[in-house]
Design goal:
about 350 residues; alpha+beta; two-stranded antiparallel ribbon; 11 helices
Length: about 350
């Protein structure tokens, strides 16, 4: 009983830690997400996935956050329902810790490929021995598949993926059963997991991933495909993705800030000029001596536009102010107003 209560307390503590990290990184997730998705929904989906898989609570919290940020950059929800992506715990033999990794599903690959300007749709199917299947390479490509609708379809013999292009035409990738099994042999979980329970889905994902290498995709999607292959071989890609995720997040943050400035000002705001306070006293932008922030000597070429305001003429003196009371200034005194002409004087003062 006491052990069960301790495990429950540890679980709640881990969930609280991950929830707190999500709150602290909500702004970063929002910057990484595409415009049609919100950070609140992504965090809610991720927390649901964590609660449904107790092993994820044993993963390092930073690996969970990193996987969610990566999913945000790709615009894929790791809910496990749509089949776009999954949060899966893996044992890292180097760090001796469980780490969460983002594993894309075959529907996630289709989503990423179809976001390109050249692809209209992607289909993937498994061919069985009793199906009609005809495939031919060359100048006259051919791909025909008629699955058997009634009776035993037999055993799997191949899998293929075909991409339909917007400008017309198509592009396909075909893998035999032996080729798919060779990919499975490289997987760390070839004897259990989805390779045992959902062989058809894994075969579709394998052939789509090979097709994706020949299709235009974003840099983040290409890195995800490479990381997915590393995960299949039992190699943890987290060390490589950490730096890349940070760079992509900084780029997304900069682009988002520029979009907001364009939206509310009509054009990008100019960057402020550096001052002595910005660069530090040891490295002023010019040779002027140190002083208050942004101060320069008279005539300095690096003086900001605001320095020109100091050259404005002083306010007019009152008539009651005598010559001795006038402040010392190099500014030329204004000429006295002329007296009105008398009736016997003309316009020329004659």
């Amino acid at each position: 009983m006491a052990q069960g209560n301790q495990q429950l307390a540890t679980r709640e503590q881990s969930l609280s830690t991950i929830r707190d990290l999500f709150r602290r990184t909500e702004d970063q997730i929002a910057l990484a997400l595409p415009k049609h998705m919100t950070a609140e929904r992504m965090i809610r989906v991720a927390l649901t996935a964590v609660q449904q898989s107790p092993k994820l609570l044993n993963c390092t919290p930073l690996s969970v956050i990193g996987s969610v940020v990566q999913a945000s950059q790709l615009g894929l929800e790791p809910d496990g329902v749509l089949g776009h992506a999954y949060l899966v715990p893996f044992w890292n033999s180097q760090t001796k810790h469980l780490e969460c990794q983002l594993i894309p599903g075959y529907r996630g690959y289709i989503e990423l490929i179809c976001r390109g300007e050249k692809t209209e749709n992607v289909d993937a199917h498994v061919v069985y021995s009793n199906d009609f299947f005809e495939h031919e390479y060359g100048s006259e490509r051919k791909l025909r598949h008629k699955p058997l609708l009634e009776g035993d379809r037999g055993t799997p013999i191949a899998a293929y993926a075909i991409a339909y292009l917007r400008e017309g035409g198509w592009k396909a990738e075909v893998m035999s059963h032996m080729e798919v099994e060779s990919i499975r042999e490289r997987s760390k979980k070839k004897e259990d997991g989805p390779w045992e329970t959902d062989w058809d889905e894994m075969a579709k994902k394998t052939v789509i991933r090979r097709l994706a290498k020949t299709m235009p995709m974003s840099v983040e999607a290409q890195r995800m495909a490479a990381a997915d292959e590393m995960t299949d071989r039992g190699v943890s890609p987290r060390a490589d993705l950490a730096v890349e995720s940070t760079s992509a997040l900084e780029a997304a943050s900069k682009n988002r800030q520029e979009e907001l400035r364009d939206k509310y000002t009509g054009s990008a705001l100019p960057e402020p000029e550096p001052t002595n306070a910005d660069l530090g006293a040891d490295d002023p932008p010019c040779g002027c001596p140190d002083g208050p922030a942004g101060k320069h000597e008279d005539g300095c070429k690096e003086s900001p536009p605001k320095a020109k305001e100091e050259k404005k003429a002083p306010p007019k003196r009152r008539r009651s102010q005598t010559k001795e009371q006038a402040p010392a200034t190099k500014t030329k005194q204004p000429a006295p107003e002329p007296e009105p002409l008398s009736d016997d004087e003309d316009a020329f003062g004659i």
